[in-house]
């Protein structure tokens, strides 16, 4: 029997769930801490975060630009976050701690990044949404924007969710 999921717009996350997601994403995943990823919005349909420009994040040859690897890693992390949140929304019948446990099994299968413009700025916004959440694989779409709202990079990824 298929698991019925209410439309994303109808789902209201508990503050405890949002706090838990932020803790896992910003504190327990050490690489995200290194990137300085900070969640700014958690909705069932879309997640947003921010990266502040720091010296450690610049490329070797372009001193004022954020490194492409940082962009790629940030977008990958955001795709994973969008999947975490979509899984949380799918299992609203479960208690918060049980839903947060589901994130342990998540892994990237495929990631494609398109670099459209150089990453120059004091901070950047990252956005991600799940296009499809299957029983084993989730597909996501992500964006990396400058402080002025200009689209700098886009990405698409697939994650194993079994």
TrEMBL record:
GO molecular function terms listed in the Swiss-Prot or TrEMBL record: acyl-CoA hydrolase activity
Domain Thioesterase: 64-151
Keyword annotations from UniProtKB, A to Z: Hydrolase
The keyword Hydrolase is assigned to this record: yes
InterPro entries with a match to the protein in the record: HotDog_dom_sf, PAAI_dom, Thioestr_dom
Gene3D superfamilies: Hotdog Thioesterase
Signal peptide annotation: none
Domain of life: Bacteria
Pfam family, one: 4HBT
Protein name per Swiss-Prot or TrEMBL: Thioesterase
Origin species: Rhodoferax fermentans
């Amino acid at each position: 029997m298929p698991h019925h999921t209410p439309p994303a717009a109808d789902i209201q996350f508990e503050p405890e769930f949002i706090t838990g997601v932020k803790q896992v994403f910003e504190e327990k995943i050490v690489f995200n801490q290194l990137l300085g990823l900070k969640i700014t919005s958690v909705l069932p349909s879309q997640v947003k975060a921010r990266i502040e420009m720091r010296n450690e994040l610049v490329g070797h040859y372009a001193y004022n630009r954020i490194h492409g690897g940082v962009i790629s890693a940030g977008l990958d992390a955001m795709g994973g976050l969008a999947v975490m949140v979509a899984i949380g929304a799918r299992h609203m019948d479960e208690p918060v701690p049980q839903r947060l446990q589901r994130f342990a099994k998540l892994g990237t299968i495929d990631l494609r990044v398109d670099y459209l413009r150089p990453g120059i700025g004091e901070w950047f916004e990252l956005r991600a949404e799940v296009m499809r959440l299957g029983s084993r694989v989730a597909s996501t779409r992500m964006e990396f924007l400058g402080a002025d709202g200009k689209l700098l990079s886009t990405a698409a990824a697939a994650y194993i969710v079994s």
